[in-house]
């Protein structure tokens, strides 16, 4: 009987060990291939957070069922599911960080510009929350558990990531719209003013998600004229 219990206990330990994976990853800027330090690597399910070093590296041990989120202001948040990784005990991924704020002094990677129809589809999807960041259902009969969940580190990380992902989406879609307007000859906003103009517009996500192309375009072009006069590139 004792031998049987030891065998079962050993099997449980092995199962737990086999369910974990060591990640030794590196984050690089997609444009210049330089390492990106200070990137937050978050496991929302565990409420854990790590930061890349000066070489853009990080090392963590997590469950093979976990999903990692990598974010840093100025870059598009990355989502990486461990279920998509190999069955190895150790994994060495290289993550390429795509900038939200471009710089004309950096090399440019030429990609096909999205069409207006593609941008419309992206607008419709705005605000969708990855399942790993959704608030778990807590029984109403357990107010203590609900309060703990609300105040826990896991909940705070999920909230922070939801906000970051939504901000990323908003900036990215605005950049795509501005590029489209420039190619269509509707306005000529200099690239270096993109992010200032987004802040100047100060339009909520629901405006981008719920309005027609005509309403969005007219609102942006009307604001562009005032913004351009203020900044001096429209006379």
Low-confidence stretches: 1-17, 103-110
Radius of gyration: 23 Å
In DSSP terms (H or I, runs of 4 or more residues), the helix count works out at 7
Overall pLDDT metric: 76
The main β sheet shows up as: 4 strands, mixed
Overall body shape = elongated
| Strand element count | 8
Percent in strands: 15-25%
Share of helix among residues?
40-55%
Count up the domains.
2
SSE sequence, one letter per element: HEEEEEEEEHHHHHH
| First-to-last CA distance | 90 Å
Secondary-structure-based class equals alpha/beta
Please explain how this structure is put together:
- By secondary structure, this protein is α/β, with parallel strands linked by helices.
- The protein has two domains: 22-97, Sandwich (Immunoglobulin-like), CATH 2.60.40; 116-231, no CATH class.
- Helix content is 43%, strand content 17%.
- The protein has seven helices and eight strands.
- The strands form two sheets. Strands 1, 4, 7 and 8 form a four-stranded mixed sheet that branches.
- Strand 5 (67-71) and strand 6 form a beta hairpin.
- The longest helix is centred in the C-terminal third of the chain and has 31 residues, at 153-183.
- 17% of the residues are buried.
């Amino acid at each position: 009987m004792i031998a049987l219990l030891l065998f079962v206990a050993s099997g449980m330990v092995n199962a737990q060990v086999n369910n974990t994976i060591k990640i030794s990853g590196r984050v690089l800027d997609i444009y210049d291939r330089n390492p990106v330090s200070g990137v937050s690597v978050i496991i929302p399910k565990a409420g854990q957070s790590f930061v890349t070093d000066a070489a853009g590296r990080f090392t963590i041990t997590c469950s093979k069922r976990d999903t990692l989120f990598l974010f840093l202001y100025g870059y598009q948040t990355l989502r990486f599911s461990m279920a998509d990784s190999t069955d190895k005990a150790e994994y060495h991924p290289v993550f390429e960080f795509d900038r939200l704020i471009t710089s004309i002094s950096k090399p440019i990677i030429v990609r096909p510009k999205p069409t207006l129809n593609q941008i419309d589809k992206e607008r419709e999807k705005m605000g969708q929350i990855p399942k790993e960041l959704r608030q778990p259902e807590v029984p109403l009969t357990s107010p203590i558990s609900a309060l703990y969940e609300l105040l826990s580190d896991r909940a705070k990380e999920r909230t922070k990531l939801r906000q970051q992902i939504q901000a990323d989406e908003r900036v990215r879609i605005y950049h795509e719209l501005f590029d489209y307007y420039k190619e269509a000859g509707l306005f000529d906003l200099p690239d270096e003013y993109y992010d200032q103009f987004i802040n100047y517009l100060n339009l909520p996500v629901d405006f981008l998600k719920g309005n027609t192309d005509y309403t969005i375009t007219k609102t942006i072009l009307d604001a562009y004229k005032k913004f351009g006069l203020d900044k001096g590139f429209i006379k």
